[in-house]
Amino acid sequence: MATRTTRATPPARATPATRSPGPRGGSSALPPVRFRDLAGAEWIKIRSLRSTAWALGLVVLFVLGASAVAALADYRGFPEMDPRQQAEHVFSLHDAFPPEGYLVLMLAAGTLGAISIVGEYGSGLIRTTTAAVPARGSVILAKAAVLTLLWGAVGTGVATGSFLISQGILDGRNAAIGLTGPGAPGALAASALLGPVCALVGLGLGTLIRHAATSVLAGFLVLLILPMLLLPADNRSTAGLNHTLVLSAWQRLTRTWGSPSAVDHYASYAGSWAVYALWPLVAVALALMVVRRRDV
Fold this sequence. Notes:
0% strand; globular; disordered N terminus
């Protein structure tokens, strides 16, 4: 009986995976992520948080309210004020940019800056983000850009509003100064930029620490508590350290009265602007270095 033989079929040769053809027959590849798309995604993340709108609204109301209260206090106490202070209007900028209001702004900006990155680590969203965008540095730069624009807009609106409200009240005593008055442009710019500076410092601390409560506490200590512990007094070395901090730089840039002395050890205006520039630059640079070397 004849037997039927079959030829063994050789195993198929493994072929490398090919990309699916594109609409025109070519291979389809994911396009590179554009920076503006990253910035748009970061804006959606920040805008979608209810806490962001509430925090910004409360900061605006508190700063404007603090400015109005300070101006009303000087308005009522004007008749009993030192005649030299009345003539020089040394209180006008202080009322426009009261420390009580801007300390709250600093804390809020630093906190939201830290949460913008810490929240992603806590929820695990950072893994999805880095999988979609392997260039982690671009993600940090996008966050920094959005925070700068957001707090720049808030800071400009708050600084302008607090200035106009305070000067409108003081105008009843002929003690108001204009936007181009002595020291006003520099103080207005410093107050408008205070929010972005603190937000970027918070972003850097959040990237380094990666824990919400600890990052917020670190921002509180660096931005608010440390300057108070290093008050200049009559100690030159302590004054030098104090002048390197953001709060002290802002206070110097918004103060137009007084003169440098051996007791106060005033910081220079140029040095204070340098502090404004260096803190956010160093914070973002450290964040870029850390995010590229650590696992998510």
